[in-house]
Amino acid sequence: MSYDLSAPARPSSATIDAPRPHRAAAPQAAPVAPIASAAPAVPAAPVPSPEGIGDIVQAGLASGYAHLAGRGLPTVGRLAAAARTASAALVRPTLWPRRRDHWQPAPRAARRGVTGRMKVTAAVLDPNGFTVVPADGAHRPAVLRLAHGRAHLVAVAAGGEMLAIQELAPGRTRVLGSGDGYRLINTGTEPAVVVRVTV
Question: What is the reported pLDDT for 1?
Fold first, then answer.
């Protein structure tokens, strides 16, 4: 019986039971030592660092693209810090604005510690008094801070129904959203002084 080793053998009914010849393993070549090359060794994997990320390395630097130029607007954190400084100056009743239930520029003592392009206004509300919080547009942040008394902020829909009521807690700054329907109500028994800081 002969076998053709050049083509793969297909089993047939005649060859299924036939024994296959034993193949001897081809002699293996002796192992060859690696050849030393003049190429430098491959460096280890780099350690992650922000050095190669342009957004992190160049943060705060001027950009060559006009559409990426900084606008110089104060952040919400700077507005909150300005409101904290202004409300601390309005602790004394002698510095409160004389006109009640209306927003007006804060006294000079309250604006003295505020730097940058920020507008500081204040309102003094009599007990059970209220005022409308002016709308500054969707892209202009505003913050409120209670300097004295007790007050609540009411969010009102365009139809006039109340959406939410939030207390202005002493020592806390409230960031206003983009909506324009806010009312401020004095819910205490003494005058409430509220500071508003906008861009």
Answer: 46
pTM given for the model: 0.61
β-pair partners for 167: 152
Report if residue 119 sits inside a domain.
yes
Domain that holds residue 147: 76-198
pLDDT of residue 150: 92
The pLDDT assigned to 145 comes to 92
CA nearest 128: which of 174, 191, 195? 191
Residue 16 lies in a domain: no
The domain total for the chain is 1
CA angle 18, 23, 27 (to 5 degrees): 180
- Strand order across the 192-198 sheet: 104-105, 119-125, 192-198, 142-148, 173-176
| Among 98, 193, 198, 96, CA closest to 146 | 193
Overall average pLDDT of the 91-105 stretch:
81
- 150 part of a folded domain: yes
Task: Look at the block and give the residue holding tokens 């081809």.
Answer: 26
pLDDT of 49 higher than 70: no
> Strand pairing partners for 125?
192
Q: Is the pLDDT of residue 82 over 80?
A: yes
CATH at 174: 2.60.120.10
Q: Is residue 175 in a domain?
A: yes
